Amino acid sequence: MIDLSQIFYLIIVLVIAASIAGFAAGLLGVGGGLVMVPALYYAFTVLDFEMATKMHLALGTSLAIIIPTSIMSTRTHMKFNAVDFGLIKSFGIYIVLGVIIGTFLASNLKTANLVLFFSLFGFLVGLFFLFLKSKLEETEKNIPKIYKIIIGNFIGFISVPLGIGGGSLSVPFMRLFGYDMRKAIGTSAAIGILIAISGTISMISSGALFAKVNSPLSFGYFNLAGFLVFVPVTMLMAPLGAKVVHKVNRNLITKIFGIYLILISLRSFIEYLNIK
């Protein structure tokens, strides 16, 4: 049984995490899942949710939160003509297919393995933000269809077991083909809508059909309480982050975010060692 002081502390932690996630979603095009998942996992741990399903709940809830966050971020980027809907249409179906396969993987992995998976990926993305992103050229190239099929499936597949909107992969993917940074971020935000909607539906369905989730206010692998705490704050902060993209030099901010992700991934790895 948790007392009122613990509940207050928990809410403060979630609000701070939601603020960072929302701002990052708009600023970096990453959806905020890499921030939300560990915060939700921590909250579900404090609330004494079942070990077998709390990481799955964190992933499914994170994907649901990304839906309104990505919509708000995308709308802001559209005002700056920084969303390539043609690219999204050309490989969106492959992303959805990857999401379905990724849901099967996430549903069948144990909590410890999901935490380890998240930790390793977060560390690699943190390194990317620190060292690679600013060094890529910006001469936009045509993306071959075979690359769209492979990368689209991979982005969708990897996003579900990580509870992310795919921006950590789609932004580097577009940058490798010479997309302007701001256009890559704006398009990534729109891709996040597609991933988040299909991923949320699949995680709710998977949890409801194949798992017995007994945690309060949970429907399949989705927790309503976590959703209601995060959504208002992330929706407020996402447009702010998206506006900042088009006004300031982002190098320092991306490096700070990279350091933050590395610290989060290390903390997640410690958690993995504790529950292994």
UniProtKB/TrEMBL annotation:
What InterPro entries is this protein classified in?
Answer: TM_pro_TauE-like
Q: Which GO terms describe its cellular component?
A: plasma membrane
Membrane topology per the entry is: Multi-pass membrane protein
Subcellular localization is given as: Cell membrane; Membrane
Q: Which UniProt keywords apply?
A: Cell membrane, Membrane, Transmembrane, Transmembrane helix
Membrane-crossing segments per the record: 7-35, 55-74, 86-106, 112-134, 146-164, 184-209, 221-240, 252-270
State the family named in the UniProt similarity comment for this chain.
Belongs to the 4-toluene sulfonate uptake permease (TSUP) (TC 2.A.102) family.
Please state what the protein is called.
Answer: Probable membrane transporter protein
Q: What is the lineage of its organism?
A: Bacteria, Pseudomonadati, Pseudomonadota, Alphaproteobacteria, Candidatus Pelagibacterales
